[in-house]
Amino acid sequence: MGRDEEPVDPMEIDGQQKLQVDAPTAVPEGFNADYLRVYYGKLFPYGDFFKWLCYGNDGKHPGCDQSYVGRREFSFTLENDIYLRFQSFDSAAELESSIKEKCPFKIDIGPVYSVDPAKRHAYAQSGNNVFVPVERELVFDIDISDYDDVRYCCSGADVCLNCWPLMTIAIKILDTSLRDDFGFNHILWVYSGRRGVHCWVCDSRARKLSNEQRAAVADYFRVYKGGENALKKVSLPGPVLHPFLARSYTDVLENFFEDKLLRSQQLFASEERCQKILDLIPDENVASELHDKWQGNRRSSISKEDVNEARWKQLKTTLQSGKHKAQGLRRCVEEIVFSYTYPRLDMEVSKHMNHLLKAPFCIHPKTGRVCVPIDPNNCEDFDPTAVPTLSQLLGELNAAGFQTDSENSWERTSLEKSIRFFRTSFLQPLLKACKEELESAYNAKLQQSKNSVNW
User: Fold this and answer.
1) 128, 215, 391, 439: least surrounded by Cβ within 10 Å?
2) Among residues 58, 143, 146, 335, which one is catalytic?
3) What's the alpha-carbon Rg for the chain, to the nearest Å?
4) What 3-state DSSP class applies to 423?
């Protein structure tokens, strides 16, 4: 890429020297343009990032669509909320120099359009509306703040190791279903940097889905139909659960609810919390019977059993006993578990092709944390509080000594594991599949033109 020939930005050098003088290794916590400039100058994985979004169209193969990546929208949010939409780049070098020059606080990725988004006005003047999104990864966005009514440890953008497992559950359920029920293979999970996770489904079949098809996929996952005032946000009608829901319940949700969530969120620890669960029981007599039971044994501390587990057991026994096997109550236990644990998707993000989503390896300006990929096979080991921060990475760079060769500076920092995972577990298999698809599409075209000539 000819990095060595690039003119060196004097600000970058000043920033480096200043950081080293102030502190040889430790860098003050925080997020600012100077820190970001060093990050973009030394650590951001431009090559891998660009390769991903080319989907094999950056080679010399005659079947490549050379215009493909140049029709992709990038959006930059600069300092002071200056918003630049419809940026486009034809090469990794162009993308890299623009990011280094503009130092965006946030980078969002949009769809691939029918024409270069930066030239959209020229096409608009020609009178025919040819500027439309034609391709886009199928994306999902899940925020922990959407679970505020069922977590008692944190609220809003705050997250801790007691409530983060709700995100782990979402990853497990969606990842399994996207692979098993829809047959997708190339799925990238990314930590949003603060309070949630993003999912990018990158198979070519997923990228070509229409808005209607995207809405249908999103709807397949929609169980939690929250509404501010609706007490009951999950209904599981019908004599049997859909196989996907039954599998999610038995493989993931039930155990998580009973083994972890009951205690970690103290779901039955107060009158108010108990009432919230009782409100989900459609039969008032059953609810008040349980309420009286819990009122009665509130002060008795004879039982060594945890109050949350004891009350949950009583509730299950009552609802599943012979006299309450009526249709309305049969599903009630499952509905309660689903209400508290099932993934809550931001449906609009998934339904529309032109939705922007934050790029992996961005830095979140509020936390200073990197938006790193998450391995869905080991997602229970992911700790959002241990994700590298901008100042930590700069401290690691300082400790390693700023070297003139910045090609692989990331290898000397704690970002190494994330970039390596992105490259080997996600990017390489994806590019292999892209290459095979390109080959077979090209060969089919050749065969077609041969046939028409022979005819």
Assistant:
1) 128
2) 143
3) 26
4) helix
Residue partners of 302: CB distance under 8 A and separation at least 6: none
Measure the CA–CA gap between 106 and 108, rounded to whole angstroms: 7
73 is catalytic: yes
Per the listing, tokens 């990546």 go with 69
Tens digit of each residue's pLDDT (9 = 90 or more) over 397-431:
988 776 545 678 888 899 999 999 999 999 999 99
Active site residue 4: no
Cβ 220 vs Cβ 226: under 8 Å: no
pTM score of the predicted model: 0.89
pLDDT, tens digit (0-9, with 9 covering 90-100), for 66-125? 999 999 999 999 998 999 999 999 999 999 999 999 999 999 999 999 999 998 887 766
What is the C-alpha to C-alpha distance for residues 425 and 439, in angstroms, rounded to an integer?
Answer: 22
Active-site position among 58, 108, 135, 141: 141
Which sign, positive or negative, has the C-alpha torsion 96, 209, 175, 333? positive
- E-strand stretches of 4-151: 72-78, 82-87, 106-113, 133-135, 138-143
CA angle, corner 148, sides to 179 and 279, nearest 5? 100
Give the active site residue among 73, 135, 146, 175. 73
Classify residue 235 by burial, with Cβ atoms within 10 Å: 0-12, 13-18, 19+.
middle
